[in-house]
Amino acid sequence: MAHAATTHSHSHEAHESHESLKVLGFWIFIITDILIFGTLFACYAVLHTHTNNGPGAKELFEMKGVIIETFILLTSSFTSGLAMLAMHKKNVKQLIAWLIVTALLGAAFIGMEVTEFVKMVNEGHTIASNAFLSSFFTLVGTHGLHVSIGLVWMIALMIQVSRRGVTEVTTRKLTNLGLYWHFLDVIWIFVFTVVYLMGVM
Fold this sequence. Notes:
One of its GO terms (molecular function) is oxidoreductase activity. Heterooctamer of two A chains, two B chains, two C chains and two D chains. This protein is mainly α. 87% of the residues lie in helices and 0% in strands.
């Protein structure tokens, strides 16, 4: 009996250290991501004036759409927070409902971003046009790609939670997803300020 208890406590400890390793891994991922975005922002800061006599930020950016995009993403951050609250209450239905709302807002954000990109490309302003557009598409596109990855991750977790409920493992995964989503929100505020606001000023 004592042996079984020891084995159980060992396996529990191993599980806990495995879980904390995964949390650590997630934070390392976030830090490397901050470095990637930091590099892209630095490139943009250097290259945004290199328009090769083409139109610059003032001529190309439509602030109305960007403000709507920003509002949508900030709202999705709020709804992901509500999903986390439902998770702590172990209310699976509410949790999935808020995740669906968050995912729909995220998808709307991506839809608007893709539309903006397509419109620019159709007008002849492509990633290859000049250094300004290369740095713009790379920075904003990398953020958009991260949001898309977040959406896939969110859908996968919704399926997992609907099957398994709120467990220790799904709680960790959802917490990481929540942090990731807020992180993308913070990055977008920088994009909005540095690229769009300062661009049209």
